[in-house]
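Example for reference:
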Amino acid sequence: MKQLMLGNEAVARGLYEGGCSFVSSYPGTPSTEITECAAKYSEIYAEWAPNEKVAVEAAFGASLAGKRSFCGMKHVGLNVAADPLFTISYTGVNAGMIIGVADDAGMHSSQNEQDSRNYAKAAKLPMLEPSDSAEGIAFAKLAYEISERFDTPVLLKMCTRVAHSQSIVKLSDRMESAQKPYEKNPPKYIMMPGFAKKRHPIVEARLRAIAEYAETADFNRWEKGTDRKLGIITSSTSYQYVREVCKDDVSVLKLGMIWPLPDQKLKDFAASVDRVVVVEELDGFIESYCKTLGINVEGKNLFSNIGELSQNLIAEALGMESPKGSALDENIPARPPVMCAGCPHRGIYYTLKKLKLNVIGDIGCYTLGAVAPLNAIDSVICMGASVSGIHGFNKANNGATDKNTVAVIGDSTFMHSGMTGLVNIAYNDSNSTVIILDNSITGMTGHQQNPTTGFNLKGDPAAKVDLEALCHALGIRRVRVVDPYNLAQCEEAIKEELAADEASVIISRRPCALLKYVKHNAPLKVDSEKCKSCKMCMKIGCPAISIVDGKAVIDNTLCTGCGVCRQLCKFGALQEG
């Protein structure tokens, strides 16, 4: 049977058909749907882990027990997982293990634009790179074969365009994989120096064997052209762009395994054409490797290592015709992302800005507190960095009693990597205030459950972490809960905790306004006669409020009746519906 599938959905189907039994991941765009789709197959146990490091270690444990496993994450998540990643390269696997990573060239939803291919090289692990949904299925199944044949975890690299585009796939039946027996083998699995030293030569020999295998494997495909003037080496979504731009006279070497690379195949391809161009997004990974082989190639002299490629960019770089777009007559204003109407974070951020505080931010939908008109965040680095960062910030200020800095972090992010930072605050006697923005869900990536919600990936009841009790257990004595819709309560709590002479946690608790079970009040109404056009209501940046002919207007289709704006209006113009 054939059907259209998203790239991520296709990878999940490949896991299913390939006999995967265990999936552990942390949500991160553009990788999230792989795990969500895998969870729909009853034959696969699937879970959200607290973070990517835990996910890799859990998937390795399942592999060790003899079941084929998978863990998924986005590119920055691979940084978190790097610790076990480099070591399980040494141990190898029992049953097949795949580590899925999705890069985000163009930074559509990410804080950096790193190229995960460098991890494959550094960790000495094979990496497959699908260019469409059909290869998503095929490469997932192939990854298990490679994993078990060569005793290695396999990296499966997606990118935003492949993950979130649709193409035709052919479905097959599931191939059940019998559980492999677990046998104790300390020299293989205990990575203390004496054993690890003996494993390193095995890793190097394995990499050479995979490179030899890659020379003749079908996933590295040579599409011969009718003219030897130009040859292109490419992979992933760049291959799709090249095929759209280039005619049949151009030879293309399409690489499906991006590491290790096939030396002889690259040399033979280059010898068959007069000019070789490498088309790849972000780093000149293939280009640099070709040059180490003495192959004269072009690449980043033609294409930027910043952002995504496109058909037109490739055509222009290669001196080919590209369709010219037509400009619009009107200038369309920019439409940056904003927090939703009724977002529970808005009241906290308004209060923080009103108090003119420094705010160390974190990763989540609440990062949008940095944009106008709130402009309430000073820094955002990575998951959990706000809690660790405020400790260093305040210690550098010699523990000043006149505190004017807080950290903000979401409930899911706190479980991911904020807890250790809070332990550090308590252990090292840091007079710091952390605000946990508890919206009862992992909002940024599409409403996934997390350890604080009381439900697992499949929606079944699960153990629920009590944030107040956890913070107390981590050594914080001052813990209080506020309703972010109550501005006076928020301001009072923040002032009191900043004035305290010890560490404190404020939990701002109200569920995300977009959750299906959340019941909203009726939309507010504007009494235009009472409206004095002061625009105080606009200071919270709610998309449901606008100014028309000098008066405030409420969009009934957006307003959730949260009432935050009413607390700003001194003239009573905003009224309950």
Notes: The CA atoms of residues 151 and 391 lie 43 Å apart. The two ends are 53 Å apart (CA to CA). The mean pLDDT is 95.
